[in-house]
């Protein structure tokens, strides 16, 4: 076998990222835009030591679950990497992913069917769009998978349509003012990314330009066309790191935040704050989490990785005390402001890592009844797991965007006396391979009783 050689094969399975799995002489290849049961002719594009990658040349027999699309850029960029699969089958695929990672960790558990989304397109309330030079002019779009080669895109399919319209309008204004796109090779150029947030309930919009240095842009016409713009900011990024934002922000117009509503509460959202990108499904996600916790008026809860305080503030009126921590100072500022905004006087938020802060709280005698955790993709720190287990809360409700690290952490909790009781996937990311999962664990003692 060699690169550019073609083969006719059956598609046997899907990877966790939704790529078709085929075999040639028992050697596996992963092929984009191929579905289980299809017969395809594919071309080898790369061969590694243990597996290779291929490209579909022709689909000889189509899956009955294939969704036809005239635009494969959603697959090429990974924006909507399983959009060619019928939605009901997407849900089955995601359930299988959760079952598989749990099973590989030695956890055999009945996973609930994923909670489907009402809207499976145009649901994202946030966009982070690269700006690059393309065919001699400033362009917006998305990078081809595993590269920094820009593919121009105007309709992002899963993003709020107003956000899509605003991206084009901003792009056109940047072109009009002859501003240069950033070049990663030379390090020259001004505009790196366009970041836009649009609140689902209020419609308020935040626009951030990530730039190499401070610039001036006339946004008067843009604000007139999009009157819901409440915040325009610059983020000055001079380093070469992978983070979208730089360390310095400049406010160009309006205020530093936008306001949205979630489960009847109001939340101020700043540029760097975490806020679920699918607001409709986030309400369902959090309601499931609260139901699992079976909260009582006397409960003390810890909201770890609290962000702007959404989880804790939404239940503050149902419990005695809420303690939350987050590493991003601006998010904690938002959380404290959001407490006041919602007349919550029993919530306390501090800046710090979850593992450091919980250890300090336990040393002060704070004993939680329920711990909510919603960590980043890397999952929980070992020190946090040990400290939270030592406090012996009645239950731990874990919200995860990465089933693999979730499964790893469940094993750790089980070793410390916790028993898995519920596993509920919630589809926050239709058309993509990503899945959000909520689990609930209860304490059964060090001997597993």
From TrEMBL:
<dbReference type="InterPro" id="IPR002792">
    <property type="entry name" value="TRAM_dom"/>
</dbReference>
<feature type="binding site">
    <location>
        <position position="305"/>
    </location>
    <ligand>
        <name>S-adenosyl-L-methionine</name>
    </ligand>
</feature>
<feature type="binding site">
    <location>
        <position position="326"/>
    </location>
    <ligand>
        <name>S-adenosyl-L-methionine</name>
    </ligand>
</feature>
<dbReference type="GO" id="GO:0070475">
    <property type="term" value="P:rRNA base methylation"/>
</dbReference>
<feature type="binding site">
    <location>
        <position position="374"/>
    </location>
    <ligand>
        <name>S-adenosyl-L-methionine</name>
    </ligand>
</feature>
<dbReference type="Pfam" id="PF05958">
    <property type="entry name" value="tRNA_U5-meth_tr"/>
</dbReference>
<dbReference type="Pfam" id="PF01938">
    <property type="entry name" value="TRAM"/>
</dbReference>
<dbReference type="InterPro" id="IPR030390">
    <property type="entry name" value="MeTrfase_TrmA_AS"/>
</dbReference>
<dbReference type="InterPro" id="IPR012340">
    <property type="entry name" value="NA-bd_OB-fold"/>
</dbReference>
<comment type="similarity">
    <text>Belongs to the class I-like SAM-binding methyltransferase superfamily. RNA M5U methyltransferase family.</text>
</comment>
<dbReference type="InterPro" id="IPR030391">
    <property type="entry name" value="MeTrfase_TrmA_CS"/>
</dbReference>
<keyword id="KW-0949">S-adenosyl-L-methionine</keyword>
<feature type="active site">
    <location>
        <position position="401"/>
    </location>
</feature>
<protein>
    <submittedName>
        <fullName>23S rRNA (Uracil1939-C5)-methyltransferase</fullName>
        <ecNumber>2.1.1.190</ecNumber>
    </submittedName>
</protein>
<keyword id="KW-0808">Transferase</keyword>
<feature type="binding site">
    <location>
        <position position="276"/>
    </location>
    <ligand>
        <name>S-adenosyl-L-methionine</name>
    </ligand>
</feature>
<feature type="domain" description="TRAM">
    <location>
        <begin position="1"/>
        <end position="58"/>
    </location>
</feature>
<dbReference type="GO" id="GO:0070041">
    <property type="term" value="F:rRNA (uridine-C5-)-methyltransferase activity"/>
</dbReference>
<dbReference type="InterPro" id="IPR029063">
    <property type="entry name" value="SAM-dependent_MTases_sf"/>
</dbReference>
<feature type="active site" description="Nucleophile">
    <location>
        <position position="401"/>
    </location>
</feature>
<keyword id="KW-0489">Methyltransferase</keyword>
<dbReference type="InterPro" id="IPR010280">
    <property type="entry name" value="U5_MeTrfase_fam"/>
</dbReference>
């Amino acid at each position: 076998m060699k690169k550019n050689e073609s083969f006719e094969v059956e598609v046997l399975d899907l990877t966790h990222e939704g790529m078709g799995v085929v075999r040639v002489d028992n050697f596996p290849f992963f092929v984009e835009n191929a579905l289980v049961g299809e017969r395809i002719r594919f071309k080898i594009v790369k061969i590694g030591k243990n597996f290779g990658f291929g490209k579909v040349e022709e689909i000889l027999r189509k899956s009955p679950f294939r969704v036809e699309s005239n635009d494969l850029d959603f697959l090429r960029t990974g924006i909507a990497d399983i959009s060619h699969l019928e939605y009901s089958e997407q849900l089955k695929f995601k359930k299988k992913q959760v079952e598989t990672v749990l099973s590989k960790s030695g956890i055999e558990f009945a996973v609930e069917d994923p909670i489907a989304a009402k809207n499976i397109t145009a649901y994202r309330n946030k966009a982070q769009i690269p700006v690059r030079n393309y065919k001699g002019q400033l362009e917006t779009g998305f990078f081809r998978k595993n590269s920094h080669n820009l593919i121009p895109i105007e309709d992002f399919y899963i993003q709020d349509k107003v956000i899509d319209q605003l991206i084009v309008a901003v792009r056109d204004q940047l072109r009009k003012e002859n501003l240069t796109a950033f070049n990663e090779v030379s390090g020259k150029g001004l505009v790196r990314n366009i970041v836009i947030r649009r609140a689902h309930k209020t419609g308020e919009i935040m626009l951030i330009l990530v730039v190499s240095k401070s610039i001036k842009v006339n946004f008067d016409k843009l604000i007139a066309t999009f009157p819901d713009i409440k915040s325009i900011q610059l983020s000055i990024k001079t380093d070469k790191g992978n983070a979208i934002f730089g360390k310095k922000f400049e406010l160009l117009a309006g205020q530093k935040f936008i306001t949205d509503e979630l489960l009847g509460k109001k939340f101020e959202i700043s540029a760097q704050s975490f806020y679920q990108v699918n607001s409709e499904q986030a309400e369902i996600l959090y309601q499931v989490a609260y139901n699992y916790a079976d909260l009582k008026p006397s409960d003390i809860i810890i909201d770890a990785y609290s962000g702007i305080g959404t989880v804790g503030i939404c239940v503050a009126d149902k419990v005695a005390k809420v303690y939350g921590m987050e590493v991003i100072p601006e998010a904690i500022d938002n959380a404290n402001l959001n407490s006041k905004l919602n007349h919550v006087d029993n919530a306390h938020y501090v800046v710090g890592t979850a593992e450091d802060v919980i250890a300090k709280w336990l040393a002060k005698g704070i004993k939680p009844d329920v711990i909510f955790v919603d960590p980043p993709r890397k999952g929980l720190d070992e020190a946090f797991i040990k400290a939270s287990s030592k406090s012996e809360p009645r239950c731990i409700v874990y919200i995860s965007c990465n089933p693999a690290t979730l499964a790893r952490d469940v094993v750790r909790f089980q070793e410390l006396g916790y028993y898995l009781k519920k596993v509920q996937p919630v589809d926050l990311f239709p058309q993509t391979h990503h899945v959000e999962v909520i689990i609930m664990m209860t304490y059964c003692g060090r001997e597993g009783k």
